[in-house]
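Exercise 7. Predict the structure of Putative Isochorismatase hydrolase from Candidatus Sulfuritelmatomonas gaucii.
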Amino acid sequence: MVSFDLNPKHTALINVDMQNRFVEGYPISAPDGLAVLERINTVAAACRKAGILVVHTSHVFRPDGANLGRLAEFDPPVKSGILNKGSEAAGLHKKLVVDERDVLLDKPRFGAFYGTDLELILRTREIDTVIISGIASNVCCDTTAREASVRDFRVLFLSDGTATHGIGDLSASELHHATCATIGLLFAQVLTVDEVIAKIERGTKAETG
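Solution. The predicted structure, encoded as tokens:
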């Protein structure tokens, strides 16, 4: 398995869509959304301590729904405005820790790079490595990891800092493990939160000598 080095000065945490609809209380919320949220808060705190940029994305649409496009055909609640900017479901979960130094990024589609200025933010800060956390592991986290990889960013994907919900006969666990296996094969190094925090600490020590 590939193993990427981590230099805190050139690393960012991209925390994907920890919004109410995906964390708890909705049909497509991840069953372990709150547990994952706690682990994300832990890794985000370690990132801030090391000087790593933390970016929180939100999958939202214009208040009038003008940029829904074909997504409305696949997700009827989206057509009703459930993820329109300003709705309760679209808001970041109240238990997610957001620091004043963090970047908040709205995105109109699954990946965090499409239709946003994320790449400009990262390149401006000379970031070449990204850590992916959030929900859903097999949709927006997966898409963001692939988008980052094809842009030649090194990608670290958190196996226990991402989560999803079940689809049909497939459980959330089955989908999540399949996603991590695929991502780990070709697009990213897959690590636990504890493993990436240890990598951050090693990178900080190497940087300070």
